[in-house]
Structures are given as structure tokens and as C-alpha cells.
Amino acid sequence: MSRSSLPARIARSPRGALSALFLLGLVLCALLAYWIAPYDYASQNLSLANSPPSAAHWLGTDEFGRDLLSRIIQGARTSLSVSVLSISLSVAVGASLGAAAGYFGGVFDRIVTVIVDLTWSFPEILLALILIAILGPGLHSTAIAIGIAYLAQFTRLTRAQVMTLKNEVFIEASINIGASPARILFCHLLPNAITPVIVAGMLATGDAIVLEATLGFFGLGAQPPLPSWGAMMSSGTAQIFIAPWIIIFPGLVIAATVIAINLFGDALIEALDIRRPLRDG
Amino acid sequence: MTKMKVRGAALALALAGTAISGALSAVVAQEATFVLTARWVGAPTYNPIKATKLNTATTLIYDRLVLQDADQSFHGQLATSWETSADGKQWTFKLKPGVKFHNGEPFNAKTIEWWVPQFKGTENAFTVEAIERVEVIDDLTVRFHMKNPDPNLLSNLASSFMCIPEPKSYQALGDKFGVSEAVGTGPYKLQQFTVGQQTVLVRNDDYAWASDLSKNQGPAKFKKLTFREIAEESTAYLELKTGGADLIVAVPTDFLPRMQADKSIKVVTIPGTELVYMPINTSVEPFTDIKVREATAFAVNQAEIMKSLYGGLGEVADTFLISSLQESKVDPKYKISYDPERSKRLFDEAGWKLGPNGIRVKDGKPLQVKFWAQNGTEFKRLAEVLQAQLKAVGMQADITILDSSTINSQYRKKTDHQLAVRAYLWTNADIVDWFFSAKRLGYPNVSMFNDPEAEKLNDIAMNKSRNWDERVVNFTKYHEYVLSQYPFAPIYQPVQLFAHGKRVTMPEKIRGSGLSSQSIVDIEPVN
After folding, report:
1. In Å, how far is B238's CA from the nearest CA of chain A?
2. How far apart are CA B498 and CA B335, in angstroms?
3. Residue A279: its pLDDT value, please?
4. Residue B169: what pLDDT?
5. Distance, C-alpha B373 to centroid of its chain
6. Of B234, B375, B388, the CB nearest to A237
7. What pLDDT is stored for residue B29 in this prediction?
């Protein structure tokens, strides 16, 4: 395998390059939403309600006369930040738990496995709904709920990785020279086990965007007037016959984002070549 | 050989299929599905005595003593005639003979004697408050002896809370009455009820005591009626369009142009009995300050809401009562209608100064409030428009959407909400008592309005009026006082719209102030 840099390796496949470009654009939109959105996402203009796409409003307006493009841009901020935040939380907690469970084994491992399997037996959406019912609707609780809903897969993945790694010679060597468990765990095991977890996290971000949109559709995510793609689609259903663009454009953006994340994830897997044993590279 | 067999089986299957679908279409004509939209969704029980929220199906399960027509005239249903003594202290009712409850128990004077005291201690106790005792004269005659004259007695008796349940099962079932079972004398029996989802009714084949408001004097035309509760209006519309429903009770106005353009759907319009308003929780900061309440009330732009959300149909509201009631004719100085300058001035006077981000600030605290709305497109949209209108005068209202079946119990927590958007359907001034009396803090008194002067005027209006004219004067005074304290902001008075598909026809004239049993039994299948 060549030693060229990771971005270069991703960019080698056209799908990887395109999806990376799209995602980069989206992240920029999200970060610079306040500056690049043509209108204030919350300012209503009821006399312009439900107007179709035009030169002034590229994607049309919603039922309150708010500019749809500005709301989609602002919505990118909501959707991306919630999904990235929740998956980061999920990866951080899941990887630590999984690594500890895999390394220490015994009763601790069994407790963690049982709890994780238990949460895995619920569909993510159900688990998230239950958690939001407890925490109350809002952005923070949505992020926490999605984070917990995806915890199981990262815990299990890390645990499996750690369990195969911990019998390797280099770990035995570290134990023999007297390294502390914390050092072995964080300096030797996790760095070697984390790559597939990161990729899984990347792919799960796509699912998290869909889950966030679903929760938003139910009115549980961002509370008005803050837009989220799911909530925009939800209000669009009521206008589907009058102003179909309200539901179509956010829907397209969600679809494109999820596809891009998946393509990028595939490219990442190929570039990192994680299907081969990690240390052979 | 094998092939032959298969073909034979396929043929038999096809034949059976045809037979079944034929049978199905015959059955379909016997059944109808009605959709209850957002405002009707979430009634937790069909116990009329204890309920604070009832839906259209209630009047099909039970009958009332009297019914009220659209022209406000009264017509006997279980009562054949009635008379009142000159001093108003006695009311004598003659009851219809031969009336039976769904479980076979007879309906007679004894039922009424049992029924009236049941209201004691319930939220609906006001309906019979003036009745001292009920005297059974004979099997089919009862006399109410009144503590004080109640000019509103017939109007109360015609309300759906005064539907008459069967005594024995009512006693036996306790709190389950109205949920697991509901026994009345009405044209339909309750077969199945899932709160917030659907109610299945089956025809009472013995029914022969309809009022003179119904053309159909016998059993109802449909064997089975299903009331589905669909809060999402576009879903309800789609159900009607695709044949999943036959009639929508309360069509949202913004669907009107679409429905009128659709040849398979017919829309029926009758005058409204509804008022949409924004209660203000007077018991929590910053609304303990009357100036802040007044400022908030005058920030609501009723005309803009009517024009943009309701297509200009209906009327704006500037008091708490629908404009067809005499008590809504208050002194103009009490009327509440959009005045942004007055609103801003009052906020300034109350010490809430405009901050740098357009939100007012007092003592370092921003003017930020919790704003509740129940699920359903219309309420959500209203909430968002109101949010923007409040923002325009410097108030940040954070919207929380609550499920319609739980929102009332959430209100009972009393201090969790600050503003809300609500609607009520009622055709009597005593609704002011219902929503603003200190006896019902939390819910229905979402405003938590508790004012000694108001209680005094309430008592005069509710209990001291000797005749109708006096009652109008007293209620107008009470209404004016409530308006002067700004525990709410009036918004809008819709018209009533019903839409039905091709499988049913509605009677030409809807009898009563809304769609209830007297006209539902005249809805017919189209063959």
C-alpha cells in the first residue's frame, strides 16, 4: 500500500472526491449559515406565504413566507451539529466502555454486554422516542437520545476489536514490562482498535441525520422557529398540495447528505484499507 | 394433472374473491367512518358527568332531555314537554314513554332523580347548581325544585355534558364508565373506544325516540359508525380523498379552496360556535403584572392571522365570546384588538426595555416565556405566527408542542406554561365562568385567573340572575371585568366546515349549533 496522504487516497475514487466535496460544502454552509443565508431564517412575511421558487426566493417560501433556502442552510447547522455531536458522544462513550469491557472481561464485561444488548434489542427510533419522552423535547435531548440509541454498536465493535488485539504479542510484551492497564488500554489497544470504529461512526452519522430528521418530523427536535430538515418536511406535509417545494427540497437535501456520507464512508474504508490486518500497512 | 389442479384452485380462488368483494361493498354501505380533527381529538372518556372534554360521538351514545336548534329554540328529546312556575322556582318535565337504555333498563323519572345529584363535586356541577332537589311526580313526570331561578337551565340541559347515562352500569363501573363501556339511550351503542385513536359505534336497533329536529324517527341509517381521531389535517383530508373516511367533522379552513375544487368532496358550511384565543397564565412572572398582560394581548394581530392562516373566512375575535351571543356586545373600551404602539408603550411602562437583540430586558432578565400548543397543523401554525408577532414587540416565546391527550393534565400543573393557544366551542356566556372561575385553576382555567372582584361578578351572573335579560346584563358585566384584566388575548372565530365524500349525503340543514346526534341520524348512505 502506498504511503500517500489519506485525503489523496480518498480523492482517488471519483465517488469519494464528489461526496467529500459535497460534505465539505455542507459543513461550510452550516458553519457560515448566518453569513451566507440570503434571508433571516425566522423572519415571517405572511403575504409571501407558499410562493414557488423565484429569483428572489430560489427555493420558494414556506407557509409563513420564510425563505426556504435560508431555512435549509440553517437546518444544515441543526441537523449536522446534532448528528455529529450525538455520534461523537456515542463513539467516545461506546469505545471507552467497549474497550474496558473487552480488556478486563469478567463480571464487568458481562454487565456491559447485557446492558448494551438490551438497548440493541430496541429499534433506535423507539429508544430515542423513549429517551426524549423522559428528557423532554429540544435539541440537547435529541442529541443525547440519538447518542444513547447508537451506543450499542460502538461498544460492541470496540469490544470485539480489543478482544482480538489483547492476545497479540505486543500487548503481552507491554504487560511483561510492567505497563499499567490504563496505559495499555489508551496507548496500545484503543489506537489500534479505533479506526474501524471511526469509520462505523462516519457511516452512523448518516443514520443519525435520518433519525434526527424523523424526530424533527414528530416535532421533538429543534423547536420553532429554529429549522431542522425533518421539521421542515413535517410542516411541508400539510402544504403538500399547495406548496410541494416545502417538503421536496429538505427531503432532497437529506437524501443527498445521507448518500454522500455513505459514499464517503466507503471511500474511507477503501483508503484506510481496514479490511486488511491493520499493522501490515 | 398437477397443472389442472392448480388452475382449478386458482379459478375457485378468483370466484371466492369476487363473492367476497361483492359482499364487502354491500357491507360498506352499512358503515361509515367519520374523522375528528385536531380540536376534537383526545377526549379521554365518554362519561358526560365527569368529562371536561367530549367529542361528537357522545351525543350518539346518549340522549339529552332537550336539544337546542341553530335558532336557539329548544326541542324535547327525552322530555316531551316542560313548564316553569311564574317565580322560576319550579320546572316540571314530562318524559317520553317507552325509552330503553342499551342494556334494556328503562328510562323514567327515577333515572332523573338519580342523575342530577351525580354532578355534585364534578367539574360540571355548575350545570345543576341551582337545582335544590328532584321530585318524582309519577313514572314519567319529574319536578326540579330550584334554590334560585336559573334562566340558563334549558341551555344547560341541552349541552353534551347533560347526556344521560344508565344508572346501574354507571354505579357498577365507577371510573371505567365511559372508557371501557358507556351505556345510554342514544341511537348508537359504544362497541370499542381507544383514547386518542378511535371510537366504534354500532346501531341501536330499538331506537325510536328521536327529537322533532331529525327527519329520521327510527334507528340510524348506518349499522356501524367509526370515529377516527386524526390531529393532522392533511392526513384527514387524504383519508377523505382516498375513501378511508366519509366525513370530516371540522375541516380546517386552509383546505377549503382545495376541497371546493375537488368534485368528489362536498363541503357544508354553518355559522361558527368557536373561538380561538391565547390564554395568559396570570399566576407566573412576568404575567403577574397586568401591564405585561395587556401589552401581550395587544401584540396579537388578529386580522393578519385571519387573512393569512384562514383565508379571510370567519371573523376576528375581540372579546372572549362568539359574536352571536348578546353578552359579546361589551363597551368598546374593553375590546382587545391589535395595537402595537399601545403594546410597546405598556412594556416600556412596566420596565421591560428593548434589549440589543430585539428582546426586552428587565433587571437583567430577558422577556422569555414558555408557549404551549397542542399537536396538529393548525395550532402549530398559529403558535408560530403568534411567536413572530410577539417577537415584533420584543417578547421571545419558546414553543412547546404537546400531545393533545396529555396537554390538559399538563395545564393542571398550573405553573409550567405561560402562554398557550387554545380554542373552545360553546354557545353560552357561561363559558367565561368555565375558563376563568377560580374554582377551576389549571384546567379549564388555564389562565390561572383568580380575582375576588371577578368571583363576585361571576356569582351574580351565575346564581343571582332571575330571568334571561338580567342574566345577559350580569354576564356582560362579568365578561367586561374579565376583559379588563387581560387573562387572555382573543384571536379568531372560525366558521364550521364539514366535508363529506360521495358515499354519504348530509341533511340540507344542520339542526343545532353544531353537528350532533339530531343531524347525524339524518346522514344517509348513497347506494
Report:
1. 10
2. 31
3. 38
4. 96
5. 17
6. B234
7. 65
**Using CA atoms, how far apart are residues A198 and A154, in angstroms rounded to an integer?**
9
Query: For residues B78 and B209, is the Cβ–Cβ distance under 8 A?
Result: yes
pLDDT less than 70: residues of chain B: 1-29
pLDDT for the residue B251: 84
Q: At B412, which amino acid appears?
A: R
Backbone φ and ψ of B84, nearest 5°: -125, 145
Cβ of A242 within 8 Å of Cβ of B258? The answer is: yes
Please tell me whether residue B249 adopts helix, strand or coil conformation.
Answer: strand
Q: Answer yes or no: do B381 and A224 touch at CB < 8 A.
A: no
List residues in chain B touching A: CB distance below 8 A: 232-235, 254, 258, 304, 307-308, 375, 377, 380-381, 383-385, 387-388, 391, 398-401
Beta strands B79-84; B274-279: pairing state: unpaired
Size of interface A-B (CB pairs under 8 A): 51
Whats the size of chain B, residue-wise?
Answer: 527
Task: Give the nearest chain A residue to B401 (CA atoms).
Answer: A219
A196 touches chain B (CB under 8 A): no
In B279-334, where does DSSP find H-type helix?
A: 290-297, 302-309
Where chain A has pLDDT below 50, the residues are 1-2, 276-281
Residues of B in contact with A224 (CB under 8 A): 380, 383-384, 387, 399
At what angle are helices A139-149 and A151-165 packed, to 10 degrees? 40
Q: Report the residue of A46, A139, A140 to disrupt the B interface, i.e. the one with the largest count of B CBs within 10 Å.
A: A46
Question: CA B222, B228, B232 angle in degrees (round to 5)?
Answer: 140
* C-alpha cell of residue A268: 474511507
Query: How many angstroms separate the CA atoms of A218 and B274, rounded?
Result: 28
User: Within 13 Å and on the Cβ side, how many CA atoms surround B389?
Assistant: 26
Identify the burial level of B500 via C-beta atoms within 10 angstroms of its C-beta, where 0-12 means exposed, 13-18 middle and 19 or more buried: buried
Residue B28, CB half-sphere, CA atoms under 13 Å: how many? 15
Could B387 and A224 be called an inter-chain contact, meaning their C-beta atoms sit closer than 8 Å? yes
Give the DSSP H/E element, type plus range, for residue A123: none
**Grid coordinates of B370:** 414558555
* Distance from C-alpha of A195 to C-alpha of B12, rounded to nearest angstrom: 61
Is there a contact between B128 and B119 (Cβ–Cβ < 8 Å)?
Answer: yes
Distance CA B203, CA B30 (A): 10
- What is the side-by-side order of every strand in the sheet holding B79-84? B79-84, B90-95, B141-146, B131-138
- A chain contacts of residue B384, beta-carbon cutoff 8 Å: 44, 64, 224-225
pLDDT of the residue at B255: 76
**Of the candidates A270, A261, A218, A280, which has an alpha carbon nearest to the alpha carbon of residue A87?**
A261
- Using a CB-CB cut-off of 8 Å, the residues of chain B touching A219 are 375, 380, 401
Q: Beta B368-374 vs B419-420: how paired, if at all? A: parallel
Write down the pTM of the prediction. 0.74
Q: Would you state the cell numbers that stand for residue B124, as one nine-digit string?
A: 360540571
* Cα dihedral B481/B487/B489/B492 (nearest 10): -80
C-alpha cell at B516: 350532533
Tell which residue, B479, B446, B478, B455, has the closest CA to residue B282.
Answer: B446
Asked if the C-beta of A45 comes within 8 angstroms of chain B's C-beta atoms, the answer is no
CB A202 within 8 A of CB A265: yes
| Tens-place pLDDT, residues B462-481 | 888 888 889 999 999 999 99
**Predicted ipTM of the assembly:** 0.71
* Residue B152 and residue B159 in contact, taking contact as beta carbons nearer than 8 Å: no
A242 neighbourhood in chain B, CB within 8 Å: 254, 258
- What is d(CA B513, CA B127) in angstroms, rounded to the nearest whole number? 19
Q: Beta strands B419-420 and B66-68: pairing type?
A: unpaired
